[in-house]
Amino acid sequence: MCMNQKNKIFVFILLMSFTSMIGQTIKGKVTDKSGEPLSFVNVLEKETVNGVTTDEQGEFVLNVKKMPTTLVFSFVGFTTVEKTLYNVSYVTITLNEDNVLDEVVLTGNRSKPRTILDSAVPIDNVSVRELQATGQTNIDQMLTYTVPSYNSSNQTISDATAHFDPADLRGLGPSRTLVLVNGKRKNQSALVYVNDTPGKGEVGVDMKSIPTAAIERVEILRDGASAQYGSDAVAGVVNIILKKNIEFTQVNVNSGVTKEGDGFNVDGDVNHTFTFGEGGFVNATLGLSYQEKTNRAGEPGKDDLFGVDNQWTRDNPDLGMTIGQPEMKKGDLFVNAEYPLNDNTKLYAFGGFNMRQGKSFALYRPPYWITDDFGLLTPPGETYDGFQPTFETDIQDVLFTAGSKFKLGGFDADLSGSFGRNSVDYTIGNTINVSLGANSPTSFDAGAYAFSNIIGNFDVSRSFGDVSIGLGVEARQERFEVTAGEEASYIDGGAQSFPGLQPSNALDETRTNIGGYGTLDWDASEDFLIGGAIRYENYSDFGDNFSWKISSRYKLGEAGVLRASYSTGFRAPSLHQVYLSNVQTLVSGGTISNQGTFNNVSPVIKALGVDPLFAETSKNISAGITVKASNNFTISLDYYNVKVDDRVLFSGEIGGTDDNGNPNATVQQILDDYDVTSIKFFINAADTKTEGFDYTMRYKNIDFAAGKLGLNLALNINRTKLEGEVKTPTNLANYKDAIFNRKEQSRIISARPNTKFLFGGDYKYKKFTAYLNNTYFGEVTWQHATDPGKDQTFSGKIITDLSLGYEFSDMISFNAQVNNLFDVYPDEIDTKGDVVTDLGGRFKYPWEVNQFGFNGMTFKAGLTFKF
């Protein structure tokens, strides 16, 4: 060997040693076989926790500690590729399509990720591109137009509910869908939906607090999962996966308006990844948005609610009302970070802060209702003409999770801590407290609600050949706080539209719970999987619960899968439902009056014989089949049956007389003592059975007009029935109808569409993309409290959405959407002699039951910049 060769070898060894100490940066791109870039491909350094995902151009940057190294490339619907690199260079990887059902998902199995094909339960995997193609402005509306069994719609004239919009899965109510972020439990909102909307009496998660620009994808488990995740997972689980290490910076700017010229909105966001150290990153999203109100009030020309038909109603045919989406200003900051300490340990943290300021509207106070404003709201020199109070909210949502994933004696371990808090502060504006006369303020601090939790999790998992096990414990503390408003907001009848929260309503209550779970999956053969899960929970306020689940999957060769599961579950009553109390101005007893909500631990409610709230329990059966007709054509069909016992309900109006018209002296004394016309409370009162079918069909990569066409069809058919009789306290035995009357029943059985059908297509030609989606929202039925002859069914409607996009370059792209292309509205309300259905003509379209809102056609366009 010559000296020159020896020198070269020496230099090579020296360089290898040096680079192993300082680390190396590998860059590359991942495409499909046609050369199209693949976004969000997982790029992992083999046998380590070090990894990234590709950006929307299919490119990635990964820091490794030494060379050579082996990288593993995996992506939904494609074969996994391993590539060993001996030196630093630009890497180009091509992935070939595999089974399009083989999408790796994290939700539904606590021991290890599985593919959708391997899963024994139905799971949707929705990419951010699919969500954004809907043209909707927030995540709950986006999911409504992509997942048939998920429903949410804009609410109005419903106090703070108009700023949250209840959402549910499979028609089981907002309280029974568990929401996770990166697999960790998201805190509930501070608000109980106490107004006459879908989800009344329940508590959900503030979905508007999570910015779409921070989301990589959403996994939706459509099956009961209490045995894995604990309370609230009766209907299923929504797991929001945040973006990771993306090389480029992306800026989105969008704006829109309705066909009627109102509801103008504009939003902008930026997503950027900061890298540090060897493999560390922080993906950050900053967003701002602004939304103006819409108005679709009725035009009755008279006011049947007050029995008035005079010159004022003729001069003001809409009765002064503003009915539609609220005004809204929003800002949010979200981060997702990871840092590998070594090959076996990774630190992670994620979370964000969301702030929203909104303004919605209450019923207009015409001069024949409130006869004088004492000159406080009427400009000098003008004649008093009534006023419309505003309901203004200051909403804040905070979420932060930090933890570590590491190896522990051959197990994969995950230790984390989470904090989440949601608060809503009320301001009642453009109104007065009549009892204070000319000394009344015109804007009132009406108080605030807040809910927070602190959660600790420790999970371990391991595979032993064909057997995978998972074990974990969770400790959680929850806190519900109520802050009283200023005295002027509640004294002597309070501010018009919403008497403020009183000192007697103020509280600060906590509870704790500890849970432990175990899971086991056994691949008995290449085709047959059987799995099980158990979970024990103990709550400090109502006791314990034990849930279990068994599931199985059998592969039908390469063509499809049979799957089934049976599970028990539970939902703990929320702290809000246990402790909420307030007075609201509502339509009560056929007129406008103050209605009192008394909490479940109140001596007043205990005196009526109402038991303390306890956990709902459930039984969930599901069975289905998936068929892979080809790599591009897949079909799935799933049946489900969910029984919920002792469902927590928000009672109807309890007045001084019972169902038979007989006076009740005990109840009447409560009404007199608290100056209200009716009382309400929470109670475990009903059993329900929900059953239905989910059907999906996807056909992609169809050659069409020199481009590629994809077709998508999805269907949900859902029915909820009441089983048995309403469970009534002994002292209120003759109030069975009042506690859960026909109108309250309709919020559970018919307030959401029982049938929802999506049919659409996507087309891509070079730099041009188009999405056309048709969503059929089935009929909904409003039931009168006592008279079936006054019920109304609102027929099903089809909403068509069109989205177009064009890439001018690698850096700039354009998108435009028309939502509700044919300007479809719900059926108009037919009062049938009952003024409460439309509040005396104020409402033109249904509001107590809801399909898709009533904004009509909207336009939206935007630009995306990448650099």
Automatic annotation (TrEMBL):
<keyword id="KW-0675">Receptor</keyword>
<dbReference type="InterPro" id="IPR000531">
    <property type="entry name" value="Beta-barrel_TonB"/>
</dbReference>
<dbReference type="InterPro" id="IPR037066">
    <property type="entry name" value="Plug_dom_sf"/>
</dbReference>
<feature type="signal peptide">
    <location>
        <begin position="1"/>
        <end position="22"/>
    </location>
</feature>
<dbReference type="Pfam" id="PF00593">
    <property type="entry name" value="TonB_dep_Rec_b-barrel"/>
</dbReference>
<keyword id="KW-0732">Signal</keyword>
<feature type="domain" description="TonB-dependent receptor plug">
    <location>
        <begin position="117"/>
        <end position="237"/>
    </location>
</feature>
<dbReference type="Pfam" id="PF13715">
    <property type="entry name" value="CarbopepD_reg_2"/>
</dbReference>
<dbReference type="InterPro" id="IPR008969">
    <property type="entry name" value="CarboxyPept-like_regulatory"/>
</dbReference>
<feature type="domain" description="TonB-dependent receptor-like beta-barrel">
    <location>
        <begin position="364"/>
        <end position="821"/>
    </location>
</feature>
<keyword id="KW-0998">Cell outer membrane</keyword>
<dbReference type="Pfam" id="PF07715">
    <property type="entry name" value="Plug"/>
</dbReference>
<dbReference type="GO" id="GO:0009279">
    <property type="term" value="C:cell outer membrane"/>
</dbReference>
<keyword id="KW-0812">Transmembrane</keyword>
<keyword id="KW-0813">Transport</keyword>
<keyword id="KW-0798">TonB box</keyword>
<protein>
    <submittedName>
        <fullName>Iron complex outermembrane receptor protein</fullName>
    </submittedName>
</protein>
<comment type="similarity">
    <text>Belongs to the TonB-dependent receptor family.</text>
</comment>
<dbReference type="InterPro" id="IPR039426">
    <property type="entry name" value="TonB-dep_rcpt-like"/>
</dbReference>
<dbReference type="InterPro" id="IPR036942">
    <property type="entry name" value="Beta-barrel_TonB_sf"/>
</dbReference>
<keyword id="KW-0472">Membrane</keyword>
<keyword id="KW-1134">Transmembrane beta strand</keyword>
<dbReference type="InterPro" id="IPR012910">
    <property type="entry name" value="Plug_dom"/>
</dbReference>
